[in-house]
Amino acid sequence: MPYVCADYSKYKFVNVCWNSENGIATVTLKRPPVNSLTAEFLRELSSLLLDLEKDETQGLIFTSEFDEKVFSAGLDFKELYRPSIDHAKEFMSLLHSFSFRLSCTAYPTVAVINGHAPAGGCIIPLCCEYRIGLNNFNIGLNELKFGILLPDWLSSLMIHTIGSRNAEQAILSGTLFSSEHALRIGLVDEIAPTKEVALEKATAFLNKAKIVNRSLRLDAKLHLRRPILQEFQKDIENELAKNVSLLMSDKVQQSLDAHIKILKEKRGN
Ligand SMILES: CC/C=C\C/C=C\C/C=C\CC/C=C/CC(=O)SCCNC(=O)CCNC(=O)[C@H](O)C(C)(C)COP(=O)(O)OP(=O)(O)OC[C@H]1O[C@@H](n2cnc3c(N)ncnc32)[C@H](O)[C@@H]1OP(=O)(O)O
């Protein structure tokens, strides 16, 4: 059984619960109010994956503290509104490296999606091997509606998960799917009535992975995910520069401004 070396209490935006009997780490995202992804959060998540790898985690479950409300609201609008060029570069690089790392972990991964997961909020679930949703939430890649062209690696993750035909329709229409619809197209693998049941199902999935030799399993995973991993590794400098210039463009900045205003009006402030 793995011996836990890392100090997981150092993390600000996640709570890590280790099960010493089965070596499964349950990671609860807890960046208030909606787990939106900032550079600091992404840096923390990347470092967490390395710690889990060193501690020979047998399986990882992601879930959210903001139960029945939001899994993750995606990229942080406020941080990405009028960023400095250096910050924009750093952010895109962190998003890319974290998503890559999560897509090829040596240990199996599950997302328990206990709330909305729009746009960038769908990235963690898509990088995981298995997705369990709760009822009454929306999930999907609706970036085109913000004037954002998806990076190739993200389209590739969606294609890998729901197939090319469904991915084409989903991405081009910018649809956010209800849980039931997400189950029909394979965007989630199961629906659970409560978070507790979802966590049991996640553990059952991870336990199944244990009967396979760990290094053989990793070889197979990397082989099966090769098309995605190739997209991550293809022409990285150029891809990051493209994303930075898209983020800095007037069109995307105006769209961010409009969305920030909509959220403010919704709260009446
Ligand atoms: C932007 C990227 C630009 C260019 C990218 C270039 C290249 C491509 C690279 C990557 C591709 C991936 C791209 C992804 C784009 C995104 O992810 S953009 C974010 C998309 N997310 C959304 O549209 C969700 C918006 N939020 C909501 O719909 C609701 O807030 C939500 C359903 C999540 C929760 O609803 P509710 O419980 O009612 O809460 P409130 O709406 O009242 O919100 C509470 C507070 O949270 C703040 N907030 C909400 N979402 C965000 C966010 N994404 N970023 C920052 N802050 C957010 C909201 O303002 C409230 O704050 P307040 O309490 O008023 O201070």
UniProtKB/TrEMBL annotation:
Places the protein is found: Mitochondrion matrix
SUPFAM superfamilies: ClpP/crotonase
InterPro entries referenced in this protein's UniProt entry, alphabetically: ClpP/crotonase-like_dom_sf, Enoyl-CoA_hydra/iso
Any one GO CC term of the record: mitochondrial matrix
Entry keyword Mitochondrion: yes
The protein's annotated pathway: Lipid metabolism; fatty acid beta-oxidation
Keyword terms, alphabetized: Acetylation, Fatty acid metabolism, Isomerase, Lipid metabolism, Mitochondrion, Transit peptide
Record Gene3D superfamilies: 2-enoyl-CoA Hydratase, Chain A, domain 1, 6.10.250.170
Principal location class: mitochondrion
Any Gene Ontology biological process: fatty acid beta-oxidation
Primary role: Key enzyme of fatty acid beta-oxidation. Able to isomerize both 3-cis (3Z) and 3-trans (3E) double bonds into the 2-trans (2E) form in a range of enoyl-CoA species, with a preference for (3Z)-enoyl-CoAs over (3E)-enoyl-CoAs. The catalytic efficiency of this enzyme is not affected by the fatty acyl chain length.
Oligomer status and interactors: Homotrimer.
Name listed for the protein in its UniProt record: Enoyl-CoA delta isomerase 1, mitochondrial
